Amino acid sequence: MSVQPVDVKYTAVATAENGRDGRVASDDGHIDVVVNPPKELGGSGEGTNPEQLFAAGYSACFQSALGVVARKEKADISGSTVTARVGIGSTPEGGFGLTVALEAHIPNVDEATAKDLLEKAHQVCPYSNATRGNIEVSLGTA
Predict the structure, then answer these.
(1) DSSP 8-state code for residue 3
(2) What's the confidence (pLDDT) of residue 97?
(3) How wide is the angle at C-alpha 87 spanned by C-alphas 97 and 105, nearest 5°?
(4) Which of 23, 63, 106, 118 is the most exposed, fewest CB within 10 Å of its CB?
(5) Strand 22-26 to strand 14-17: parallel, antiparallel, or no bridges (unpaired)?
(6) Which of 1-15, 24-38, 40-54 is predicted with the least confidence, judged by mean pLDDT?
């Protein structure tokens, strides 16, 4: 698979200290959080974790992609939400992998339209494009 060129308009910068049991901060100070492994992975669970941060970013990005698609399709997505569930676990090769389940609640469209919008947003969203073929991503409606 070839790498698609990107005309970069913005670059986010964040720095981690002490990995999964430390701190993560953005260069502009908007993010400055303690990170700890969740209790399910043997950690304290007192801070956030990379999977929560990834879920937050993916859900926000996907919601925006849904908006782009809805405007083109002239669909009303007002009042909609997108929830991302990011799972982490071991792989057969001995490393770790992620899964993502995206669930959208779109109250003003029927089920078929909602599913069509999700599929189209999945083609537009930068997170979806970055993860495609690398991790399992499922789409659903609430």
Answers:
(1) P
(2) 96
(3) 135
(4) 23
(5) antiparallel
(6) 1-15
Chain centroid offset of residue 22 CA: 22
C-alpha closest to that of 82 among 68, 112, 62, 57 = 62
d(CA 109, CA 142): 12
- Cα separation, 33 vs 49, whole angstroms: 9
72-113 pLDDT, tens digit per residue, is 999 999 999 999 999 999 999 999 999 999 999 999 999 999
Q: Which residues, in sequence order, are bridge partners of residue 99?
A: 87, 136
Query: Sign of the C-alpha dihedral, residues 31, 16, 98, 49?
Result: negative
CB atoms within 10 A of CB 34: 14
pTM: 0.94
Residue 139, classed as helix, strand or coil, is strand
Pick from 62, 55, 66, 82: which is nearest to 116 by CA? 66
CA distance 109 to 96: 38
Instruction: Say how many CA atoms lie within 13 Å of 16 toward its Cβ.
Output: 11
CA angle centred on 17, ends 11 and 22, rounded to 5°: 120
